[in-house]
Each structure stands twice: as C-alpha cells, then as structure tokens.
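The following record pairs a protein chain with its ligand, flavin-adenine dinucleotide.
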Amino acid sequence: MAHFVILGAGECGARAAFALREKGFDGEITLVGSEPHAPYERPPLSKAGLAGNVDPKFIAAPQTYEAGNIRLMTGVTATGLDAAAHAVTLSDGDRLSYDQLLLATGASARAFPNAPGDSRHIRSLRTHHDAVTLRAVLQPGKRLAVIGGGFIGLEVAATARRLGADVVLLEGLERVLKRGVPEDVAHLVAERHRAEGVDLRCGVSIESLTERDGKAVIRLSNDEVIEADLALVGIGARPNTELADAAGLAIDNGIAVDDRLRTSAADIFAAGDCCSFPLAIYGGRRVRLESWRNAQEQGTLAAANMLGADEPVSAVPWFWSDQYEMTLQITGLADGAVAHLRRDLGEGVFILFHLDAEGRLIAASGIGPGNTVARDIRLAEMLIAARAHPDPAALTARNVKLKTLLAA
Ligand SMILES: Cc1cc2nc3c(=O)[nH]c(=O)nc-3n(C[C@H](O)[C@H](O)[C@H](O)COP(=O)(O)OP(=O)(O)OC[C@H]3O[C@@H](n4cnc5c(N)ncnc54)[C@H](O)[C@@H]3O)c2cc1C
C-alpha cells in the first residue's frame, strides 16, 4: 500500500492530509508534528484567542484524524531525511519510508540578536505555548514592550490594550508595516494605536535586550532604558528549511519548489510558509508567503499533485489582519506599483489599488471596520487574476461597482 508522509502538522500539513482523503487516496497517511497538540489555527493567537482563554482552536476535532484513517503523530520531530532512500528519521527513533513526502514545516519566529533565547520575559509568538506565556502579562498594571511594528506585534498591542496592559511598541524603521503595506494604511493603523494609548515609536534603535530582576530591559541607542514585564519580539519569521537543506534539496528563501510545489528531489513536495515558489501572474517571480490562506490552498494543491494532478499554483496572494475593530486586507503583491489609486468608502474605510507601469492592477489594500472592505478586495483579487487593466477613473469612483470592471 502506498505511504504518503507529511512533515509538519500545521495549517498546511493538516489541510493536505484531509485533501488526500477527499481526493480519494486510500493508502497510508502519516502526519508528523513537533508540537504537543493536534493541528490548530495560529491567527487567533494574537487576536481574539489571546484575549480569551487561549485554548487551541483546532483545525479539526482531534478524533477526525482517526476517523479519516490519518496517523497523527504529535510531539515528534523529523530529524533526518534521506531523499535517495525515501526515508525519514524521527526524534522518537522511528524511521518512516514514504512513497511521496510533503514538507509543511512552516516558519519560526526570528530571535532578537544576542538576547537570551529561552526567557520568561523575552518571548516571540508562534505557538500556543508562546501565547499562554504572553497572556499572563496582558492585564492592568503590567507593561508589555513590543519590538517590531509588523502584523503580529501590532495585533498583540491591540489585544494588550483591550485587556488593560500598558504597551510600548518600538519600530526601527520610520513607520510601521513597512513590508508590503502602503503608507496611507500604515498611517491610519499607527494613529489608531496611539489613540488607544499605545506608546508607538518609530525610527528607534535598540542597543540591547536583556533580562534583569524579573523584567525585560531594553536599552536604546540614545541610552534610554525601557523596562517591561515582557518584551514581545515580533521581527518576522524564517522558514524551517534545516531538514531539506541537510538532505541537499534546493533552498532559495525557503525550500525552493516549482509551480507544481515539487522540490528539487524526486517525490518530495513542499508547501506553505516553508517554501518559495514561482508565481506566474507576476512573471514567474519567486515568492514566499506567510499567510493562512496560502497555507491552506497550497496544502490542497500539494495533495492533488502528490496524486498526480499536475496542477500549477495560480492563486493570488491574500492576507488579513485584525486590530481593534479594524480589518485590513491585502491581495496581490504591491511592490513594483507606480500608481496608488484611492477609493474612499466612508469615514476610515478605503481601498488602495496598486497599478504597474502598464496600468495593470497588481494589488489592492483595504482597511475598515469588520467586513467592510471584504467584497471589494475579493473583486480586486479577481481583477488581478484576470490581469486586468481597469480604467483608473472607475477604480476611484465609489459609485462605479468593481463588478462592472470585471465584466469589462
Ligand atoms: C500569531 C500569528 C498570527 C497570524 N495571523 C495571521 C493572519 O491574521 N492572517 C494570515 O493570513 N496569516 C496569519 N498568520 C500566518 C499563518 O498562521 C501561517 O501562514 C500559517 O500558519 C502557515 O501554515 P504552515 O502549515 O505552512 O506552517 P505552520 O503553521 O508554521 O506549521 C508548521 C508546523 O510544522 C512543525 N514542524 C516544523 N519542523 C518540523 C519537523 N522537522 N518535524 C515535525 N514537525 C515540524 C512546526 O512545529 C509547526 O507546528 C499568523 C501567524 C501567527 C504566528
């Protein structure tokens, strides 16, 4: 009987396992994950889940794996991969032979240079365990220092303010959300945080991050010292490529795959946060995405291709973030845009359309309360997929429905 092995029991790995069964695969499936829990959702860890009781929000009820005849191994890490022998070594001493392998090893939070690694007062946020530690200081009378004005840092800052903790947020660059988010949107987000009482500082240079007397101690290059009950390091993530690298697979800002999610080794696929892949709608440019929907879609696609479907990646990138009552949504890739056209949809609600030099829509970013921008972002995504060159005047005119542009 064929044996398909999936390494990494996160969003992507879990989705791939279920997709294999949904697509009729009746061989053996083994899903191996380092974490002690069945696969769970990560986005709530910085949002509503962090404000609540921090129980893991499971992707599927743990018994679903047994019902689907999926062998789920938790608390077990794959420590070796022999691509020629089609075999994987596990931390519990087991060795698994595979016919097809999927690497869905995700990403890990980047550590702050020279800071204590395993500290109660200096943490990053990637796992349920991290969220539990963080949750303990999110209360009135406690002070949280967030290092990095990216999505995770900002979401945690918003949650911390909701729960009554004091928050100082330190960003090294001149503004928050510098990577992939237009200035107008980032400005609105920053102002909102300040209005909520976050001491948000940009252009700050940190000299050192240490721990002393039960506090995190941040020394800035101007000699100011900031103390906090916990410093949350939110300076990005790096793909988990060690296993693939040691096995000799091609690495290029992640495990390098082709447009079918095939790695450089036979019968090994990679998908989700751990891989970089060529995106045809952007001229085959190689990208690595850290996004929930991408992990799901690539898990499903990898499963199809492990079964021989031979389907290319075609999805348009999409990402969302929740902070306070605001939701930010971004579709496409905005770098390379020369025009940024704004469609106002009401007070504090707008969409920016990003066009390249030929007038092609390549990305759209929207912000507003709840779901206010969701529909238009979805339509923008369809326009991007259709490689449309929409009339700029129609994009900015609120009374022109985007749906009509799609029909055109
Ligand atoms: C706090 C937080 C908030 C987020 N919010 C959003 C959001 O609002 N919107 C959005 O689009 N995205 C969000 N994301 C990103 C999204 O959660 C990720 O893109 C998604 O989880 C990636 O799924 P993945 O399966 O590729 O990787 P992961 O979720 O990282 O899962 C990989 C799993 O593989 C395991 N693993 C690694 N190496 C091995 C090994 N050798 N052996 C066995 N197991 C291994 C890891 O322990 C991990 O459990 C957020 C992420 C975080 C951390």
